């Protein structure tokens, strides 16, 4: 997993290695990628009870104007709490807004990103506002949003 930190207003990025503790700062971007499989769709459908045929029947999806079966949008958006919780165990997700921009199909590689844009300390915990984005095919934006999480620490695991 890479951690990128903006170091000047020209947009240069500096990569940090995993040696030594890193502290989350405003502007930091955390990323993870994932390819969604048929099994992911089935498992998510079982848990969510979302059995919309757009996720299971290519013909229905194509008749609705899509190229193929869709990955559930909320399954793709689950990358955001995964990214945060994997780096900050004990994080509490407070809110999330989402705008679905483009479909994600089974087999697409999706890159989720969360960027810290505001950090406030309160009672030895940290309220952090993140910009949240998912991309496929390089830079095609598929989900855009914002999240707020309470972090027990700003130290990245």
TrEMBL record:
Domain of life: Eukaryota
Matching InterPro entries: HotDog_dom_sf, MaoC-like_dom, UPF0336/Enoyl-CoA_hydratase
Database matches in CDD domains: R_hydratase
Coiled coil: none
SUPFAM superfamilies listed in its UniProt record: Thioesterase/thiol ester dehydrase-isomerase (SSF54637)
Ranges of residues in domain MaoC-like: 32-125
Pfam families (UniProt xref): MaoC_dehydratas
GO terms of molecular function: hydro-lyase activity
PANTHER family (UniProt xref): HYDROXYACYL-THIOESTER DEHYDRATASE TYPE 2, MITOCHONDRIAL (PTHR43437:SF3), HYDROXYACYL-THIOESTER DEHYDRATASE TYPE 2, MITOCHONDRIAL-RELATED (PTHR43437)
Protein name in UniProt: MaoC-like domain-containing protein
Source organism per UniProt: Eucalyptus globulus
């Amino acid at each position: 997993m890479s951690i990128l930190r903006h170091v000047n207003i020209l947009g240069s990025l500096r990569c940090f290695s995993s040696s030594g503790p890193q502290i989350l700062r405003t502007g930091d971007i955390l990323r993870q990628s994932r390819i969604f499989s048929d099994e992911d769709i089935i498992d998510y459908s079982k848990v969510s009870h979302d059995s919309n045929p757009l996720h299971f029947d290519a013909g229905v999806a194509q008749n609705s104007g899509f190229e193929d079966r869709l990955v559930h949008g909320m399954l793709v958006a689950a990358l955001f709490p995964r990214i945060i919780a994997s780096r900050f165990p004990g994080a509490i997700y407070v809110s999330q807004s989402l705008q679905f921009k483009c479909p994600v199909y089974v087999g697409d590689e999706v890159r989720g990103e969360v960027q810290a844009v505001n950090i406030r300390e309160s009672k030895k915990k940290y309220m952090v506002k993140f910009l949240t984005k998912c991309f496929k095919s390089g830079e095609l934006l598929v989900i855009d949003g914002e999240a707020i999480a309470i972090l027990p620490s700003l130290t990245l695991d």
